[in-house]
Amino acid sequence: MSIDPSALIHPHAVVETGATIGPGCSIGPFCVVGAEVTLGADVTLKSHAIVTGWTEIGDGCEIFPFACIGEIPQDKKFGGERTRLIVGKRNRIREGVTMNTGTAGGGGVTRVGDDGLFLANCHVAHDCIVGDRVVMVNSSALAGHCIVGDDVILGGLSGVHQFVRIGRGVIVGALSMVTNDVIPYGLVQGPRGRLDGLNLVGLKRKGVDKADITALRAALQALKQGEGNSFQDRARRLGESGEIDSDYVRDIVAFVLGDSDRSFLTPE
């Protein structure tokens, strides 16, 4: 066990032998910290939070009551193998959130980036890769093996099917079920999520240049109505046209032509 002397641990908390507690940590009453857990500097666990398994929590994270971080995967194929959960820095993980370790079949690691906000009762399943500055609104959920890019917002009660990729800058509306990959900067709405244009609000808030937004609009139109028998064909033609002068459009082309087991949400 390694507990920095500056850490504050409530006498009613349980810190198992073998845990590593960094400087400036605060562990509230009735928390449980497992033997293979590493807490970075200035991590706060509020009362009744549980961090278990082979789990690493980055500096400055704040975990609220009744969150359960690092438990085994909710996967029938899991056979007790030793797998990990790695959570980045400065994440706020609210009440009742669950994040599971990986599985041997999925690479063995679940990863969460930096500066995320995970609101009450969200779920990050085994083997997910979650980017930086991701917001998961109350009761949204990622199934196993999902990949979520930076600056994504998942609306309340939304769900993402296993193995789906969500590109950077996407916003998914509340109550949507996403069953296919979503191109970067897309807007998904509807009970059975459909691609309903670009996340223009997010792009403008980020200060994206008007020329890039115009290029994104043109690219979306080309993917919708351009030549080619498939979405990938149209993306390939767009990439080979020599007319792309926007990194944002290049992101979309690279994403569509990337490796995936799913099809795409396509513009109607």
Question: What is shown here, in short?
Answer:
The chain is built from 4 helices and 29 strands. With 268 residues, it is α/β, with parallel strands linked by helices.
List keywords for this structure.
268 residues; UDP N-Acetylglucosamine Acyltransferase, domain 1; 11-stranded mixed β-sheet; 9-stranded parallel β-sheet; 27% strand
Textual characterization of the structure:
The strands form three sheets. This protein has an eleven-stranded mixed β-sheet. It contains four helices and 29 strands. It folds into two domains: 2-145, UDP N-Acetylglucosamine Acyltransferase, domain 1 (3 Solenoid); 204-256, no CATH class. A hairpin with a 4-residue loop joins β28 (186-189) and β29 (194-198). The model has no long low-confidence stretch (mean pLDDT 96). It has 268 residues and is of the alpha/beta class. The longest helix is centred in the last third of the chain and has 16 residues, at 210-225.
Helix-strand layout with pairing:
Elements: E1 2-3, E2 8-9, E3 14-15, E4 20-21, E5 26-27, E6 32-33, E7 37-39, E8 44-45, E9 50-51, E10 54-57, E11 62-63, E12 68-71, E13 84-87, E14 92-93, E15 98-100, E16 109-112, E17 117-118, E18 123-124, E19 129-130, E20 135-136, E21 141-142, E22 147-148, E23 153-154, E24 159-160, E25 165-166, E26 171-172, E27 177-178, E28 186-189, E29 194-198, H1 200-205, H2 210-225, H3 231-240, H4 247-256
Parallel strand pairs: 1-4, 2-5, 3-6, 4-7, 5-8, 6-9, 7-10, 8-11, 9-12, 10-13, 11-14, 12-15, 13-16, 14-17, 15-18, 16-19, 17-20, 18-21, 19-22, 20-23, 21-24, 22-25, 23-26, 24-27, 26-28
Antiparallel strand pairs: 28-29
Helix pairs in contact: 2-3, 3-4
